[in-house]
Amino acid sequence: MSEPVRLSKLMSERGLCSRREADGYIEKGLVFVDGKRVSELGTKVDPDCAIRLDSAASAQQQQRVTVLLHKPVGYVSGQPEPGYQPAVTLIRPDTQWQDGRANQAFHAAHLKGLAPAGRLDIDSTGLLVLTQDGRVAKQLIGDHSDIEKEYLVRVEGRLDEKGLALLNHGLSLDGRKLRPARVVWQNADQLRFILKEGRKRQIRRMCELVDLKVVGLKRVRIGRVRLGDLPPGQWRYLRPDERF
After folding, report:
1. Domain boundaries, the chain
2. Catalytic residue among 94, 121, 133, 174
3. Positions of the chain with pLDDT under 50
4. Which helix (H) or strand (E) holds 87?
5. 56 and 40 in contact (C-beta within 8 Å)?
6. Apex 226 CA angle, 224 and 229, nearest 5
């Protein structure tokens, strides 16, 4: 027989919500296990049990927003650094992209708990996802995330076939091997990187290991969602028909 596991952990693993959200739903009595309401934090359950959220919890999840921002250079994606602003300060009514397809009006409540799902260095630009939804965050940055991130990287220096092969597979950072990547030349001075992980300053450090200097880095895709024509410094809501 399988060992019982914490209900909140199991809910997170199944992608129902984050562990913190699960605890909140359990406290409010909004979670049913095998048809029975559970309201005690720390409850352990059979890992094969059936879990259902109350309609009130499902409605809360439907109201949570996910935002796509074209982050400019000079903004930090997460915690503010001295002299620099976090990217979330760009999420304002006057910076919402008016492309004729805006499906949702800005509301101040959308800023509550809005957090970046992944990082983008202060000197990098491109697609940054911010979300109120723990399910989206887990999908993009959870331990077992397999979502591709695509970057256009302008470089200086010379790169031979051996160096290109190392960028694709064979490098280590901080004593840990990197997962296989896809790296190809986009044009004479620009590489296209497709990664399934996001270690700190990973691309810049990878390039340093093969004697390249990064002079420009732009993220153009996360999963199936592309940056597209979204202008720098502007943002839009993830549309209902879009999935990472």
Report:
1. 5-62, 64-144+225-237, 149-222
2. 121
3. none
4. none
5. no
6. 155
Write out pLDDT tens, residues 204-242: 999 999 999 999 999 999 999 999 999 999 999 998 889
Instruction: Write down the H helix ranges in the chain.
Output: 7-13, 19-27, 55-63, 134-141, 161-168, 202-209
Cα 211 to Cα 118: distance, rounded to the nearest angstrom: 27
To the query of whether residue 121 is one of the catalytic residues in this protein, the response is yes
pLDDT tens for each residue of 169-199: 999 999 999 999 999 999 999 999 999 998 8
Locate 73 and state its tokens: 């250079």
Query: Where does 64-144+225-237 sit in CATH, by number?
Result: 3.30.70.580
pTM of the model: 0.78
Rounded-to-integer distance, Cα 70 and Cα 236, Å = 9
